[in-house]
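Progress report, Aim 2. The chain analyzed during this reporting quarter is listed below.
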Amino acid sequence: MIPEHMKQELVKRVSGAITNREAAVDVMKELQRHYGWLSDEAVQEAADVLGLSPLQVEELATFYEMIYRRPVGRHVIHVCDSVSCWSMGGESLLQQLERVLEVNVGATTADGIFTLLPCCCLGNCGKAPAVMVGERLYGPVTPEGAEAFIKGLIESSA
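Predicted structure tokens for the chain:
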């Protein structure tokens, strides 16, 4: 259950929106930040705060690929799979990250630190292939630099 102060802050944000649905992504992201992912309980809490049905929240949650409806690692690595990134080595980068992390796309490492996911576009075409971890964009990240990239993430989160 979310803390009362957090619930009141979310209610305040919703009241400042033109429509409740306009505030839905913000509410879902805050709940996801709190829980680590958007559980069924969190969907219900979002619905309560937004004045929407749980089904309406679920529809929105499953539309946005950066809302996680299942547990994820502490760091979610989104690898852009747009045409621009793919043409600059994105597919090879994704395969190399799978090898370095020892997981398949969509999976979380055994230690629960990383989840590796494709992303339709990160809007960083000028620095392709692009990767996003949390709110931070990286690019270009080459297949050859994948191991150093992961090592840097581990060191920065220690």
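The chain has a mean pLDDT of 94. The chain has two domains: 4-63, 75-157. These observations will guide the mutagenesis work planned for the next reporting period.
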